[in-house]
């Protein structure tokens, strides 16, 4: 819901006919058959002309439908169906195509959402339970066992690949900040869109920053193998470490829906017992335990303690942790070399694949055992079909995922089965498996580079063009925009890392500002009155590169310091030879005039009306408004459910279940029921026979 709604607010400025990269310029038929064209470029936007819409309007329609489809499962259990998630996946894959989304949809979290979304198709139940607390009967036993295949393996395996690769690439990149454990002394200041809490975190002691980097390596590299641990408490410990990391990232940075999506993936480490809402009995009856089970419990406890001890010793040894009691700090440093780490990575990458394969085998055997227990030949046949489909799909997706995962270690990549490579090459464009590696290198070690746009009417007096979210005015505090992703602001951050020729879209942005195109202006300032050239477009536009640093504690009214570095983009005007040359060089000068948007179709008029109604809302407010509406509806649903007659009868039945049954040898003695509370001094209630 967040991803679709956030994208919807930016479509006209990014992909509209007057946008930065108009989608009409990219999506064009190539004279191929309909199905071949759909397979090579998997997007539903091929059908937009049949509805009387251009490509950008088609993206708007898909974004709106995606938002509504995502709202459905949030509100109604019956809509949590594989078909709904398949439609969501297809709708988000359509604009993600390189021929449409281009550079503004080229982010790892978009790929992660697509991969997770396809897994949701496999995880979602085909039919919902008819009643609460109902034990599965017959074929449902097999169905629940089969659904554990994609849920417990593929989703957990995806979480493992995401976290393990994100930790490994920080060291394989040879970034001196990560190897020197000083990355976080720069990160809070140089990340794309910091929050006000990032300013506070930036001014923490250096030794604490270095210790935090050590904790990051521990959580991202050492802990992920515990996702597949057979001991429940180890998986719970891994869960809470991952949640802690994601929450700290959310507090200090605006990373849209990425961390929220990662938190969703971490729920695969939990179980129903840990999430149980019903309280356990006050005085549970102690059941006699056999000696093999008692021995297994003690061995599990010893193994758990051994794992914790190994993690603690390894962290202290490989990062040279030393406590300085006099200065009240912990010293840390990397005590291993790049060669040693490369050898270790080569040694563990293949075993982690075998770990995933072993988990897959176990789940397949468990599913097969569930099929054996199914009663009735018709149910057995249906369960066998479901097992074959889900089992084959799970194995295929696991093989596909091994290829991008092996990118972390090139030597292992060449050892993979050639069939896995062929399968991955065939399905790669569907985004079913992707490689991940966040924060590979730390940028801005000498100061945060930032591009500042300026406009002028005479070429002498320049006025800065302030963006809503990215740093600009040194007196403005960093905003909180999560879960919205302002995609232009993000690309401005990447553009500042190199020359403007590395970001061809920037030339198109300058052109649209000179033309005064409203959709692009709204990406910069949603309130037109805040845009300095809202009355008349600027005659000249240029861009300067600055370096920004957080202000020091005690400075009133300042959040940033900045220093001019160089000119990023030369002053140009409409018709300027330099601008025209750049437009031709980057293929941004369309020879065919843009077609006027069709407004005769009812669907096009409806899209325009919805856009008009929502245009005044700032995107973060719109997203949080949707979430607030979902929360309000869920509260009303819970209140109505608790007051319904069915709920009253269910609660009454549950209370009667607490009454202990009479033993056969004590039929003449009235049974004294156990009170349904924990008060030792209260009189037991009288129960009618």
From TrEMBL:
Residues 106-276 form the Lipase maturation factor 1/2 N-terminal domain. The chain crosses the membrane at residues 243-265, 353-372, 384-407. Residues 655-689 are annotated as: Disordered. One of its GO terms (cellular component) is endoplasmic reticulum membrane. Residues 432-570 form the Lipase maturation factor 1/2 C-terminal domain. Belongs to the lipase maturation factor family. PANTHER family: LIPASE MATURATION FACTOR, LIPASE MATURATION FACTOR 2. This is Lipase maturation factor. It comes from Heterocephalus glaber. The lineage of its organism: Eukaryota, Metazoa, Chordata, Craniata, Vertebrata.
